[in-house]
Amino acid sequence: MRAACLLFSLLAAHAALAADEVVLNSKQIESLGIVTASLPDKQHGELAGMPAQVVIPSNQMVVVSAPLPAAVQQVEAGVGDHVSKGQVLARLESPALAEAERGLLEAATQEQLARNTLARDEQLWKDGIIAESRYRAAQSQHASAAAALAERRQMLKLAGMSDAAIKKLKSAENLGSLLEVSSPIDGVILERSISAGQRLDAAAPLFRVGKTKPLALEIQVPFAATDDLAVGASVSVPAFNAKGKLIAIGRNLSGANQTILLRAIILEGSDNLRPGQYVEASISTSKVASSQWDIPNSAISRIDGRPMVFVASPKGFRAAAVSILHEGAQHSVVSGSFKGDEKIAVQGVSSLKASLTGVGSGE
User: Would 363 be classed as within a structural domain?
Assistant: First the structure.
């Protein structure tokens, strides 16, 4: 406490308020813990610091469901696993599968019988032994049997059986109740809803699988700022070195904060992001904006209600007024009278503010 009082007394004795300038030497700057950083490059026609969430596009996600009533015998994949198309995710025990297989074999038998009858009646009709109506009836019966067989085959395919497995079943007539559930796409397991021993109804969700490339952004933008935005505009996430483009501009306003939802696709740097992550995005605008800078919030101080930043000068620091164009969680976009090569205080700003407004006057 004594050291702090001495430090502020020294500061009060040597600080001069002339054109909003604080006079400090290098030793005092170091003692007060003041850190400076170069002013970032200018931003022209950019809406920066917009809150956004990383998401997987809806057309890149699939839900894997139980095709038949079953009990979970074994789970082969968990959340976060990378899976390939056709990879087995779970094995289910389903008596309904054996019933469906039996139905296929019966339908195959009926189709074969109808085909033989059709071939025999066709020859008899050609020889003039039977009437054409009987031949046409045999054709109809065969078509009906073939349709029933196709239906049974499709039911087994929906249950996860391959064409090779169905062909093997017809030749060997060996019924089984083990059902393998496979991934329909290459992707990552986002959600698992089952565990071993669990009983399932038909269509019960088992897994949610998604492709993580490319990722997308859902961006919240103030309604007033959307006039200068257009589909195709470039979008970036500077903190994670990711880039993409705007693909949709919503029409509905959110009730709470009156913002518009934008959607963007990430084309570069997807590996640096994770689904569900909250980030700050920048969007290029069609408007040629005045010079603006994206600076950390720690560099901004308010004096008499005016936002200010402290710019390094030969004597110490001078307070420069800025206008906040957008205030983000970590960074804000400001405009001001800068040349662009200045250094600004990004730490220890409260000490500079105290010395400018008078020691002990409070913030």
Answer: no
